[in-house]
Amino acid sequence: MIKGLTLKSLLSFTLLLTTLPIITLPAYGSDNIKDVEFAVFSLNNEIPALTKSKARMLYKGKTKKLNGSIKIVLVDLPERSIHREEFYNMLLGKSVTQMNGYWASLSFSGKGTPPEELSSDDIRDIIEWLNENPNGIAYAPVSAVPENANILITVLQGE
């Protein structure tokens, strides 16, 4: 045995190591994965609710209209925003880098333009933009969305 290390202390240490993952598991469990859920929302109550498929089509530039007549304008959070990364990962399974490449190819081919990018992810800036764009749609963590907003869809991790 190593000097000062007894069988009892070795067993205690082994027991601690084997139970530690069980003790810390809830901190990394599925509860925390769903801590952030996003709302795709507008201030315009005439914009209809979205299916996940329709939300994906909007954020991939595959459609710009809802109900055949409402021309939609999207806004995006700054590229450096952690919320932007999480949102695109949750909704489309893509990183910001992948989406930038996707939008670059659409823009180059003349098939689409990316959403307007805000300079901050502050909810006040998002609301200000939505007030200036009546058919605008934004996204933000549900906890930040004002009560008077028209939530079109919520997006959760793993859905």
From TrEMBL:
Protein name: Phosphate ABC transporter substrate-binding protein
Recorded superkingdom: Bacteria
